[in-house]
Amino acid sequence: MVYETENRTIDDAVARVLDGGMIDRTDAIALLAQPVDDLAAAADAVRATLGDGTVDACSIVNAKAGSCAEDCGFCAQSAHFDTGIETHGFLDPEEILAAAKRAEADGAQRFGIVVAEKGVSKQKRPEEWADVLRAVRLVRDETDIEIDASLGLLTREEANILADEGLNHYNHNIETSPRYFDEIVSTHTFEDRLKTLRRAKNAGMDLCAGVILGMGETPADRVDAALELRTVGVSSLPVNILNPVEGTPLGDRESAAISKTDLIKTIAVYRLLHPTARVRLTGGREVNLATDEQHWPFEAGADGLLTGDYLTTGGQDAATDIEVIERAGLTPNMAVNEFDPERVKTTANHDGADAAVESRADD
Length: 363
Ligand code: SF4
Prior knowledge:
Layout: H1 10-18, H2 25-32, H3 36-50, E1 54-64, H4 93-105, E2 110-115, H5 126-142, E3 146-150, H6 156-164, E4 169-171, H7 178-184, H8 190-203, E5 206-208, E6 211-213, H9 219-232, E7 236-241, H10 260-273, E8 278-281, H11 285-288, E9 304-306, H12 318-327, E10 331-332, H13 341-351
Bound molecules: iron/sulfur cluster.
Iron/sulfur cluster (SF4) binds next to loops.
């Protein structure tokens, strides 16, 4: 497994990472040019040494759907595009609690409350803000699941209040590199997103922030996005793969603009760039990979997934996800929420039950 590129090798990269060091931008771009099998094996070795052999599952609820004033070019929920999705205001907090309980029963360790919004605003929409806090408290008090939320841009005050209420994690994806971001979004900036991540972190929340691959970005953009995430420090790195939505600017593509090989290579390099973060497969994985291919990323360093439906598109049931995890020789994480994987599989097989929580999304 020694392939030289400007005197940089996969073995050197693995040794450096396992020694507590870091690979840099040049290393990461050179690694992306290496054979996929060797790169995957290297990333798998890093995960096996530094990880715990489990795959963490999270689940989300689309707590406020559609009519978003922002113009993110991949997003079905933007009011700028005619995508025909169902829209609704912020759900009753009791409905959100019910979704969290279903996610917990399906084995999720983490539950995310997601809104389609530039930012839930304490000042502009105080009633909605109060409902968000009520939902956080209900899930905090009545389940064992960890709570995550994706509420858009935050002020410093809002971040502090959410952390004080017991929100464990904050999700805010950066989507792509700083260079490519402006091609995808014009209504807010890359720096706006970073600012919110820093505020959430300073307030004491763990960060879950990631990307969407296959939007037309270059391999260097993929590396640069991961390096930005390393600068802010994320504990969970969701990797979405574009699932083109008709009506959006990226909706005329037949599929994501990334090959399966490049997807696996990117996952492997993300593992090396973020040795201890959960590299989490999220939206689009089951559209871009066949069921019997879905274990590949988990043999290339990935160790997390989003189970159930996404925000506006269907996902995969918990039983199938458990099979994918086991096929990769890994086990579901049970650190926070102890559940019975065999019961989830049996339930799905007997009832054909769709273990999905209602409506969830890709961002
Ligand atoms: S990605 Fe988020 S901020 Fe952008 S349009 Fe969609 S819901 Fe709005």
